[in-house]
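Technical note accompanying the year-one report. For the benefit of new consortium partners, we illustrate the data format agreed upon in the data management plan: each record pairs a sequence with a structure-token string. No post-processing was applied to the example shown here.
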Amino acid sequence: MHVPAHFTADEAQLAGLLQPGLADLVTATPSGLLCTPVPFVAADGVLLAHLARTNPQWSEPVLGEALMVLHGPQGYVTPSWYASKAEHGRVVPTWDYVVAHVHGELVVHEDAGWLAAHVRRLTDVHERGRPEPWRVEDAPDGFLTGQLRAIVGVEVRITRVEAKWKLSQNRSAADVDGVVAGLHGDGHAAVAAAVQRARG
């Protein structure tokens, strides 16, 4: 990924993006590129996720490293929001976004114990803070066993991370003010907040 210096992420920003969420798992295989959106959690230098057993991506040999693409807030930026449009008109549309490419070795887990622990971890993270959190143990044993047989665990052992925070850092303060206001006006509060934080 091309990352100009002013769009480089720091460690704190990257840690924020490694919070549990949805990522695209991409692998190059003899059959071509395969990609599946997967819910993941990060732990000790790895990303943990799972695929449906019927998804051929887990059983295809991986050529080189796997790639997990983690997406943060993103949105279209019209040049109409820039103060500099009125000054000189030398502006074009763009896109503000946050993304990380996490590269690493793909390890497949079919062990029922590993899968049960993974599903508990993933569920506990997303149920935390709910008035009545659902727990894996709430499902009947036979049903849960069948569900675990229907998935395969995948682990990406991280070797390198490329992250890009493209949030109008290359624009003037007046242009950034216009972008923040415009994004709020378009209902993209998360992107507006990210742009505001990135201005330093």
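Partners are asked to follow this layout when depositing records. Residues 112-127 form the longest helix (16 residues).
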